[in-house]
Amino acid sequence: MELPERIGDYTVERELGAGGMGTVYLARSRGGRTVAVKVASPELAADPHFRARFRAEVDAARRVGGFHTAQVVDADPDAAAPWLATAYIAGPTLSGLLAAQGPMDEARLRLLGAALAEALQAIHSCGLIHRDLKPGNIIMADDGPRVLDFGIARALESTRLTSTGAAFGTPGFLAPEQAQGLEVGAAADVFALGAVLVAAAGGDAFGEGTPVMLMYRAVHEPPDLSAVPEGLRPVVAACLAKDPAQRPTPKGLLDLFAPDTAVQEPTPDAAGYTPTMPAPPAVSAAPTQTARRAAAATAAPAAVPAGKRRVRLAATVAGSLVVLGGAGYGVYASAAANSDGSFPKARYELTTPDTMAAGAYERDEEHPLSPDPEPDNTGQRDSTHLSATYAGTGKAPGFKKVTVYGSFGRYKNPEEHRDGLIRAMTVTGSENVSEPPTTISVPGSDVEFRCTTVDQQTVCAWGDDNTTVAIAFTPTGALELAAKETSKIRDDMRTPITPQP
Predict the structure, then answer these.
(1) 108 and 232 inside one domain
(2) What pLDDT is attached to residue 330?
């Protein structure tokens, strides 16, 4: 693409890069100041929702100061291609620095954490939420880290929600509430900060794999903190708490990362371990879900009834999906809550048979673990999750691989879970959704299926009285064909629950 000569009053010198918003250029003001100018793509420029949100976010972003951000200096939301100019910060991105120099030690991680906490404090004080903090959005300048692209993500998110029903962000750094399409607050940025520190230590908080796998683990699995120095693990674990209310604030993080400059009162929470910093005040003495899951992972697997194969997602299972089961990630509900009569009785459970759809698919990979229970919340009770992958046997109509992810329990609205699975499949960071999900009725089936195509997969999902499943078919195929195959698989996976005497 030909380089534009000018953008507003700025003379363009060269292209710096391109991304989800559009193209970024290095430019110079009439007085000789260098700036980074981000120009919206033609698709975004044509979207009135983006323009309206962009204008509001730019107004707020202009107010952000602090030592650790790239200040917004100019913008034109009404231009043919809306643009935003920020002070140009020379230096590599954090991701580039890590690739060149390797992981950071504890001292450097503390400095990075404090700088990012200070940046988030400045951003949040202006009523903004970054929503896409990651190593690629952090410039390692000579005078310390600088956070880029605040004030932009929400405009992009507004457009993405309008067009596809998906959230915006980068899997691996997305907070559980973001991955689920729930309301996002400042705590989501703290979660991302925790994931950034894990990456800076040389690890991956939620492993590697497809974007959907990363989001699943962010919602359901404890983070992998093995690369993080032991003295920093308590605070990083607090940042990565599933429940937003249990994450520390940026101000609290400053006290934790830079304790020598903070005035702090002794806290009883610090008595549980001997770290090099105080325990995060936002973490209660009661075990968090992250701690419970970590403990469960080291416990002996529970016995699995003969003939039943209940599996959940493990690190090597590809293409699994995220369940949107509600906003609750606190302690498990009491027995009294479990007896809530507003939740219908469960009549079926899910299994993963050796073959499905009259032998069209054979299970070729599984990780049998103990059942994976989810915490009760306002929308679900007694929910258990499973996943498995199947290979086409040649009898399948063009599908070479099938990935199944599902849950069974008691749900007030199982169709919400179904639609959540579809939404989760469209959050890939670079998604290409061919069309909105389509509702398809299959002759002989008593449920409706919702199907769509995203990237290289066709996805169908169902939600009946107490089972919810999404199935990714590879390669893509006609939605109607995928819905018919999903109906056959549903018949094979659902097993009536034998009433207890």
Answers:
(1) yes
(2) 24
Domain interval for residue 42: 6-87
Per-residue pLDDT of 404-417, as tens digits, reads: 888 888 887 777 76
Q: What is the pLDDT of residues 169-195, one digit of tens each?
A: 788 999 998 888 788 889 999 999 999
Total domains, the chain: 3
Kindly state whether residues 365 and 330 are assigned to the same domain: yes
Q: What percent of the chain has pLDDT over 90?
A: 31
Which pLDDT belongs to residue 283?
31
The lowest-confidence range among 237-246, 247-256, 318-327, 418-427 is: 318-327
Q: Indicate if 260 and 395 belong to the same structural domain.
A: no
**Residue in 182, 211, 214 with CA at minimum distance from that of residue 198:** 214
Question: Which of 35, 53, 87 is at the close of a domain?
Answer: 87
What per-residue confidence (pLDDT) applies to 227?
96
The better pLDDT of the pair 462, 331 is held by 462
Q: Of 245, 263, 294, which one is at a domain's C-terminal end?
A: 294
* Same domain, residue pair 367 and 463: yes
Rounded Cα gap, residues 154 and 131, in angstroms: 7
Reply yes or no on whether the pLDDT at 322 is more than 60.
Answer: no
- Picking from 497, 426, 500, the residue whose alpha carbon sits closest to that of residue 467 is 497
Residues 239 and 312 in one domain: no
Q: How far is CA 298 from CA 44, 106, 241, in A?
A: 47, 27, 19
User: Tokens 């698989």 sit at which residue?
Assistant: 489
pTM: 0.56
In a domain, 1, yes or no: no
Residue 287 located in a structural domain = yes
CATH of the domain at 225: 1.10.510.10
The span from the CA of 488 to the CA of 483, in Å, is: 9
Long-range contacts of 56-64 (CB under 8 A, 24+ apart): 56/155, 57/128, 57/151, 57/152, 57/154, 57/155, 58/84, 58/151, 60/126, 60/127, 60/128, 60/151, 61/126, 61/128, 61/150, 61/151, 61/152, 63/126, 64/122, 64/123, 64/126, 64/128, 64/150, 64/151
Whether 347 contacts 336, CB under 8 Å = no
C-alpha separations of 391 from 26, 117, 333, 385, 401 in Å: 49, 46, 38, 21, 5
Query: Using CA atoms, how far apart are residues 280 and 268, in angstroms rounded to an integer?
Result: 11
Residues annotated as part of the active site: 132
Q: How large is the average pLDDT for residues 278-285?
A: 32
